[in-house]
Design goal:
heterodimer; A: mainly beta; 4-stranded antiparallel sheet
């Protein structure tokens, strides 16, 4: 158990809808990262927050947004969903904001868009 | 453009023998590399990392080798155990214009045969 929690575990929705994925980092970790893993693909970095502020941005679509709240939990909002958004979404956390440290991953949320 | 490549989707090794997992990268600006292990239905777990100023890092049964001139990274597991059966991802980090990039390979599925 990494100490990172993600809810929900599974989510099934329809095209055009909007969903929110939630992540609670390990106790004491200030950085939160979001990744997308599509079928047979590697993890694609989406975005990083550190102590409530955006620190790094990857290949995140404009239809996607995220935020980190004062209690350090984070939410990833996906809107106008398309079939291709079906994937595993992982949240990770770390103590520092720099990239030179290990990340602790949650179990993921599996999103299915029908 | 896949900047981090794991060209072997799968690998089978006999228990007790050495497992060698390979990773190639194209961006010479990557300066920190990590290996993660992933079991089904779980998030990736950090294994070992190496800075670009080193060419080897060892932790127990796991050793990572970095060949900067060849832009090649490898993970050696000795001796291999059935519990090592998992998907292994290599990841690379760099900082560009003050923002970090985190790039993952597509993974290699290791099967250790008892």
């Amino acid at each position: 158990d990494s100490g990172v929690t993600q809810t929900p575990k599974h989510l099934i929705t329809a095209t055009g809808q909007r969903v929110t994925l939630r992540c609670s980092p390990r106790s004491g970790d200030l950085s939160v990262y979001w990744y997308q893993q599509s079928l047979d693909q590697g993890l694609q970095f989406l975005i990083q927050y550190y102590n409530g502020e955006e620190r790094a941005k990857g290949n995140i679509l404009e239809r996607f947004s995220a935020q980190q709240f004062p209690d350090l939990h984070s939410e990833l909002n996906l809107s106008s969903l398309e079939l291709g958004d079906s994937a595993l979404y992982f949240c990770a956390s770390s103590t520092r904001w720099t990239g030179y440290n290990e990340q602790f991953f949650g179990p993921g949320t599996r999103l299915t868009v029908l | 453009d896949q900047q981090v490549k794991q060209n072997s989707p799968s690998l089978s090794v006999q228990e007790g023998r050495i497992s060698i997992l390979n990773c190639d990268y194209t961006n010479s600006m990557f300066d920190y590399f990590l290996w993660y292990k992933k079991y089904p239905a779980e998030g990736p777990t950090f294994l070992i990392s190496i800075s670009s100023i080193k060419d080897k890092n060892e932790d127990g049964r796991f050793t990572v080798f970095l060949n900067k001139s060849a832009k090649h990274l490898s993970l050696h597991i000795v001796p291999s155990q059935p519990g090592d059966s998992a998907v292994y991802f290599c990841a690379a980090t760099t900082i560009t214009s003050g923002t970090y990039k985190y790039i993952f390979g597509t993974g290699t599925r290791l099967k250790v045969l008892a």
